[in-house]
Design brief:
alpha/beta; UDP-N-acetylmuramoyl-L-alanine:D-glutamate ligase; 2 domains; about 40% helix; elongated
């Protein structure tokens, strides 16, 4: 579990460390040394420096590389610490020159980007944009120090350097994992340099954080031991037979004992031929309390809303479940749109453990805010107010219970295909059959879905993979977590 912070918290932590523990020159030296130790340097290196402390990290690196590097300076401008280490470079005979429009990276093997740090805001223009264009088009191995220059340190957006490797200094910043970051950073490593974080922390989770969470299957057990779950979705316009079949399969592959598929009786004939392991429950049109109770009898977890379409009856169904049951509930897709038309205070009253799985547009409807305002902070505030777990889908998935935020920076471009979100809901439903929903168990589901997608893309390719390819790889990922 790695710490993740905002740029503001990182800056304040840096200032607190300098005031109380370690001077700024020492921290800059450690940063440059961290970059030096992060890569097996070969051949000639070009180090592109701006005018701030990010450039100072580059000067420390240059002093360590010596004659095998060349400093390219954008401006005759230095921070006080940066000036100190630039002078050290001059003493050691490191060559430098100021950048102009004729700059060429011919003859260099590696380019180090030290133009802007995480504090950069705004739009890259002028000569800086020209230099970034040349870096990105150079064909050289590119290393960015702390963040690719131009990328927003909080949001992960903006025109920027595209790095082969980014060496984060101190603690990972949110902008290194959100939105466009994965397209700008092929490899991310973080190097602590002794800065103690003062302020709010988020957490980046990976495989080792889920060890021991999946229960071992006992010989003296049966299907009921691992939970009955249900998936309720589909309508005339969105029968989604194959999709719903895959949902059931993903729930079972995630460990529950039995999955029940609940659909309207008029689409049951289209769904039934695709079901093998799961059972089928047919619902009449409109809200039927008795049939709903029958459908949910013995259920520990329900995933609801996928392919529902629109209809007042669904508000009645969702309202009744939230008011009458004490089970794990995943609300997704049209279930979220249904919920957005209801009084959300029902979430405060329910005895259910509720997990909401919106993408940005769905969350904007739910929270009644503009899509541009949607981020993990808004999701955290929503989760806190309504007492739910929110899984906000994105390049990096954010999971929050209102107190903490966990990130899963897994997944791949091939998952941008119909049904990927449905598979995630199926996985969460399977986990919810034998585990209470909380921030950690929901994060486990997000991790399994994302890693299974990565394996699917490796098997097929980003262009051709489908959600069913992800389903096929769930077992491989759960095996990794078990340590098989």
């Amino acid at each position: 579990m790695q710490e993740v912070v905002s740029v503001k918290v990182m800056r304040e932590s840096d200032e607190a460390t300098i005031k109380n523990k370690t001077d700024s020159l020492t921290l800059m030296k450690r940063a440059g040394e961290a970059v030096y130790n992060a890569y097996n340097w070969k051949g000639k290196t070009a180090i592109i420096c701006g005018g701030g402390n990010n450039a100072g990290d580059g000067y420390v690196l240059a002093s360590l590389l010596g004659e095998e590097c060349h400093l390219f300076l954008l401006w005759d401008k230095f921070s006080s610490d940066g000036r100190f280490y630039f002078d050290e470079c001059i003493k050691k005979g490191v060559k430098y020159s100021f950048i102009d429009e004729n700059i060429s990276f011919e003859g260099f093997d590696t380019i180090v980007d030290c133009i802007f740090g995480t504090g950069f805001r705004g739009e890259v223009t002028g000569i800086v944009k020209d230099i970034i264009d040349k870096i990105n088009g150079s064909g050289k191995y590119v290393i960015s120090v702390d963040i690719p220059s131009g990328l927003n340190g909080d949001t992960g957006t903006g025109y920027s350097v595209i790095s082969d490797m980014t060496v984060s200094i101190g603690t990972i910043k949110t902008g290194l994992i959100l939105n466009e970051a994965k397209d700008k950073i092929k490899k991310l490593i973080n190097c602590p340099i002794g800065i103690d974080i003062v302020g709010e922390k988020y957490y980046l989770l990976d495989k080792e954080d889920f060890y021991g969470m999946l229960p071992e299957r006992k010989s003296f057990s049966h299907k009921g031991t691992y939970g009955y779950t249900a998936i309720w979705g589909g309508c005339e316009e969105y029968a989604g037979a194959v999709k719903l079949g895959n949902l059931s399969l993903s729930a079972l592959k995630s460990g529950c004992g039995v999955t029940r598929l609940i659909v309207k009786e008029n689409i049951a004939p289209f769904v039934a031929p695709y079901l093998l392991e799961s059972t089928l429950f047919k619902m009449p049109g409109g809200f039927d309390k008795e049939k709903t109770d029958e459908a949910l009898g013995g259920i520990k977890c329900l995933a609801i809303g996928m392919g529902w379409g629109k209809g007042k009856e669904y508000e009645e169904v969702l309202k009744y479940i939230l008011e009458s049951y004490a089970i794990n509930v995943v609300i997704d897709a049209d279930g979220l749109n249904t919920l957005s038309n209801m009084d959300l205070d029902i979430l405060k009253r329910t005895k259910c453990n509720v997990c909401l799985t919106p993408h940005v547009k769905e969350f904007s409807r739910l929270a009644k805010i503009d899509m541009k305002e949607v981020d993990f902070i808004k999701a955290k505030e929503f989760a806190k107010e309504y007492g739910v777990v929110v899984l906000l889908k994105g390049t990096a998935t954010a999971v929050t219970d209102g107190d903490e935020v966990y990130f899963i920076n897994r997944g791949c471009p091939g998952m941008a295909t119909a049904g990927s979100g449905d598979v995630l809901s199926g996985i969460l439903c399977g986990i919810g059959g034998y585990m209470e929903f909380d921030i950690k168990s929901v994060s486990l589901g997000a991790y399994i879905a994302a890693r299974a997608g990565e394996e699917a893309q490796r098997e097929v390719n980003a262009l051709s993979m489908t959600a069913s390819d992800t389903v096929r790889n769930i077992g491989k990922v759960t095996g990794e977590i078990y340590g098989y």
